[in-house]
Amino acid sequence: MSRQKSGFTLAEVLITLGVIGVVAAMTLPALVTDYKGNILKTQLQKSYSVIQNALQMMNNEQGFVAKPGSYAQRAFITTYKKYLLVASDCNSDKCESRYEENEDGDSVMTNNSSNYKTYNNKKLKNQYLDDGQLILPDGSFIMVQNEEKALDGTILISVDVNGIYKKPNRWGHDLFTFQIMDDGKLLPMGSDGTLFDNDTYCSGTSSSSINGIACTYRALTEKDYFKNLPK
């Protein structure tokens, strides 16, 4: 009696490999997106904790709560940086190399903060990023907005969670903004009561030059936020 050998033919093997390739091509991009999104979310949560803890230590030591109007323009960062582990102080170490006049005639720092784009990849206006910049040992990049007391004294803290030298360098993707409120609390921008609402300033279709500034609240609270970022 002859014994039949069981097994796959070459054609069957090639078909199977083809199917596996198609499935991989369909699923791998989603897996990569999920992986990158999880990393960014973890970095955002860590950065929020770091800047919040530094603010709390600062408040405890100075004996009063830091809030809008407490500091002259660009003075907040001088005190605040004492409570952070700082690898580079960009005001002295020249992370930002020069001031230039922008399209509105305002003098703003160029290079690092001008590398950023909005949430939907448009040109970003960096007026909220230019009152002090710090690089921390993990590479995260902190940028402060500290308005003059004569205005409203607004204090915003923005952080590029994976650093200036890593893309995407876009508001609401790896750059996130927090606001110090009148009661001294540090809230994610887009939270109730903050300057910018997320319906208007975290939009995939907005042409605003600060679009993405209000995405922080959504990034911290929405489960699938990082899966749905605009290209």
TrEMBL record:
Highest taxon of source: Bacteria
Gene3D superfamilies from the UniProt entry: Glycoprotein, Type 4 Pilin
Presence of the UniProt keyword Transmembrane helix in the record: yes
Listed transmembrane segments: 7-32
Pfam families referenced in this protein's UniProt entry, alphabetically: N_methyl
InterPro entries: N_methyl_site (IPR012902), Pilin-like (IPR045584)
Keywords assigned by UniProt, alphabetized: Membrane, Transmembrane, Transmembrane helix
Entry-linked NCBIfam families: IV_pilin_GFxxxE
Protein name per Swiss-Prot or TrEMBL: Type II secretion system protein
Species of origin: Candidatus Scatousia excrementigallinarum
Lineage: Bacteria, Candidatus Scatousia
